[in-house]
Queue: 3 jobs
Job 1
Amino acid sequence: MLFRENGIEYDKVDYFIEPLTQQKLRGLLNKAGLRPIEAVRKKEAAFKELGLSENASDDELINAMVLHPQLLQRPIVEVGDRAVLARPVEKALELIGRSSE
């Protein structure tokens, strides 16, 4: 992983093993400045199966992502009071103030 290659210590959280709560997910999205629709995987089968759409409410999307973690885009990197959806993963280095070069 990019952090290991750059000698950066980190804690990895697997949302499938340690599911996010609604409160934690809301906090991460807030720190990243993202609305739930920006963090959901719209091409994931569950998105359609659950009847979700671009018009779904924030609460509906957060509930869906908590119950179906495969809907959440990853990785989300959190550092203190800031977070970033690290897609591409180099965005995580920007968050911590390092360059990948």
Note: DSSP finds six helices and two strands in the chain.
Job 2
Amino acid sequence: MRLAVDPRLRRQGIGAALWTTLRAELDERSAKVACLWTDDGTACRDFIVGRGFMEVVRSYEQVVALATAPLPFAAAEDAVASRGIRIETLSELQIRDGHESLRRVHALYTASRVDQATLAA
């Protein structure tokens, strides 16, 4: 579940109301762990720390701006291809595999995260 408050509407009690309702549900279910994610440097961090949460795991996303990224060198493409790896866009996958492509992309994403630290580690 992803909940957020529009930054223009923060500090009006909306997040607190969401948390109060969610906390009651967690208590009713005897939840042992509740995880929240926030971006660094936002008001969200202070909000969740103020409600008793502490940082356990920090993760980073790496994003490439494809419109301005340098094109890969032919040698790099050949090296990847020689290992049996094929790079395709989601659009290409959807044309070939239809809705099954989304399941396959999710499975690949999940498999690629197997060695990442988790709360259970």
Note: The chain has a mean pLDDT of 83.
Job 3
Amino acid sequence: MLIFYVFLLRSKKGQENKRKGMLDTLKRGDRIKTIGGILGTVIEAKDDEVLVKVDESSNTKIRFARSAIHQVIEPPKT
């Protein structure tokens, strides 16, 4: 039981470190997905917030807390 708990704890810690690293390296031009499922492109990344362009045609931009970013979407490899 103890060994299982140790593996579970290390896995959770690794996921937290990976997410923190992803949030720390956000930069202009990254395609992202928010926790709410909104897709967009990073326009500006500050310490605690990120400005994201969500619509090209109307130039709509939304400001998010950095913690609301779920993942950086990798461009398809050709």
Note: DSSP finds one helix and five strands in the chain.
